[in-house]
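User: Can you help me understand a structure? I only have the sequence.
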Amino acid sequence: MEKKFKRTLVTTALPYANGPVHIGHLAGVYVPADIYTRYLRLRGEDVIMIGGSDEHGVPITIKAQKEGVTPQDIVDRYHNIIKNSMEGLGISFDVYSRTTSDMHHKTASDFFRKLYDKGEFIEKTSVQLYDEKADQYLADRYVTGTCPKCGNEHAYGDQCEACGTSLNATDLINPVSAITGNTPVLKETKHWYMPLDKWEPKLREWILEQHKEWKPNVYGQCKSWLDDHLQPRAVTRDLNWGIPVPVEGADGKVLYVWFDAPIGYISNTKELLPDTWETYWKDPETRIIHFIGKDNIVFHCLIFPAMLMAEGSYQLPENVPANEFLNLEGDKISTSRNWAVWLHEYLEDFPGKQDVLRYVLTANAPESKDNDFTWRDFQARNNNELVAILGNFVNRALVLTHKYFDGVIPAAHELQDIDREALAEFKNVKETLGANIENFKFREALKDAMNLARIGNKYLADTEPWKLAKTDMERVETIMNIALQICANLAIAFEPFLPFSAAKLRDMLGLDTVDWNKLGEIDILAAGKAVNKPELLFEKIEDSVIEAQMQRLERIKQENIINNFKPKAVAPAVTIDDFAKLDIRVGTVLECSKVKKSDKLLEFKIEDGMGGRTIVSGIAKWYQPEELVGKQVCFIANFPPRKLKGVESQGMILSAEDAGGRLVIIGPTGPVKPGASVG
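Assistant: Let's start by predicting it. Here is the structure, written out as tokens:
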């Protein structure tokens, strides 16, 4: 039997305030959460959406140290960028706060203290790496060293990015402090741990038995963790940035960011509703929904619920509809590599096109598996769907109304079969669209909404009112009334998905508000009422705009290649006698041409001071033949001749491979007589 709730609390994963928000965050969390919340508001339900910035943790302190500023400077900067860009995209938070607020510090501190006083923590002493020069314990990311698995000399204390192995800082070979460069020592430290194993039976019952309706990716990950059995997890750490542990003798220790961050949902609700916040967290008639990405499933389904169980007075989430990851142009989105489409930059580059991004990210949402965002798909969905289907239908309906009826909605007369068929096609849209949103199938729900526009376009194409206008204006009145009623349905159906365009459409139709219960009906607009002049809802995006974005990504890709370049290991040692065996000379290129039936080879005619020679080199990918004529090159003169594609090559031209894999010909920096020796 389906549970009935009086109200809904929607939370969204707290974005980490050491960088802006990108399209991966939007597709995974914020756009679906906003669609769901707007839908419930449209239905007239009691719902609030809670958001905020996660502002504690080691990456923020590292970024601050690199920039020579304070951690507060870092979080202030990115909190404002994130908050403003979310507002720009129409993510309709009821509150968007932060974990550095006084309210949050008090709420998280009190939460910890209550669990501490109840005896819910375990105290454990362990050895950790300590930098004696900096006089501090080293968090995982403050340690680098050699990976014990693959030998990568630049592994971090929590993970080797070369082989992907999860590590502890004490696992590293030859560990080095990232703060001072010193070799750290092992030193004992005391911390408090949450005994997750104590709550495993209750978590198993709550998730595996009571919530089989959860998305398979969420349910499956929870089951895997539970089957492997939960272990105690530290809730404090040695750091000077965070919420101080509210226990005597805990100087220099703060709450672990994974412990304090989800409490941000509670503190932000308190900030919004200081007198009634408990209704949304402690009343069984409240439905709590956490919107997150798949990397947060364990925290929101196992760890945070265990904290709430231990506290004893809070409701557990009803659902945690986590999405998978969104990739960019076939590659994983990466903040450190700048491989992303940043929201604040998108809003600058595409003014007035917030709904285009919302549409594309919803249509391509990674709901059940990782998905890929490409700029070509972005352009195609805008031009072929938003412009050609939705925008085209609305524009035609309004233009024809102004053309034939001076912008006044005509009355409908007797319906024909073709009218009844069109109306029957969207009679059940309210039920199907609503059910898909309620089941977190936003891609399908968006298709339901767009199908209304498809029905409208087909209806106008089949009835051809522009032809009937010559002979039967009463029939045209009926057709245009139905077309305008479909437009009104579109204003309702697209409100959760495309709020800016829906508002524009409402304005054109003269609708002050829309009512979800009217969706699917054909009397939303009253005959005799005037509609406003049509404006284009969407505009075509040209190839040049997309090319500019593709070129930006290509520049980033090349920068990453250069930044990540590591020279090959030095070859085994040789003697001067070995080197002397190579006869390296300088020559001048007299002629250069492509070798027939080869994409890689160029044929050089070289003036070598000894009568000339021919050399074939595999550098056609990087040079045009004509740009090499007249240049001086270095070549090995004493290689035995060999035939390549039927051309005898009498030596080898020297080249160097740059970070991007390009071959660059090596030659003297100034004029040298052909035949001069190199050595």
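Now, to help you interpret it: The chain has a mean pLDDT of 94. Residues 375-405 form the longest helix (31 residues). Let me know which part you'd like to focus on.
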